[in-house]
Hints:
The protein has helices at residues 11-22, 34-44, 60-70, 112-127; strands spanning 3-7, 27-31, 48-51, 79-83, 104-107. By secondary structure, it is an alpha/beta fold. Helix 2 (34-44) runs parallel beside helix 3 (60-70). The longest helix is centred in the C-terminal third of the chain and has 16 residues, at 112-127. It is globular, with a radius of gyration of 14 Å.
Amino acid sequence: xSKILVVDDDPDFVEVMRTVLSVDGHQVVSASSSxxxxxxxVREQPxxxxxxxxxxxxxxxxxMSQRMxxxxxxxxxxxxxxxxxxxxxxxxxxxxxxYIHIDAFLSKPVNPRExxxxxxxxxxxxxTPA
Length: 130
């Protein structure tokens, strides 16, 4: 069983993620901001992080992904960024570059099958010895 950290300030979204991911036997822990997410990623040592962009600040999730990417102990943890930023006035603020430390990007509302497929693909790549 893999542990997945869902970082999102919408408790309903977190609960949907918990329901969808538990189908495949994943344990889901959660946080509601990048600051709380960083504490949880150190404490819980998840196998994967699902991360929203807009939380306590417009680009809160990007802050967390960059902090994880800069940390040698955390940069191996895959990140799926899940957001509705494309449908907001903040879309122009979102940097679309190779420098963003994420492994996949999904738009809200998330298709459960697509999410499960992406999670399982990334976990297989990380957990399978080279």
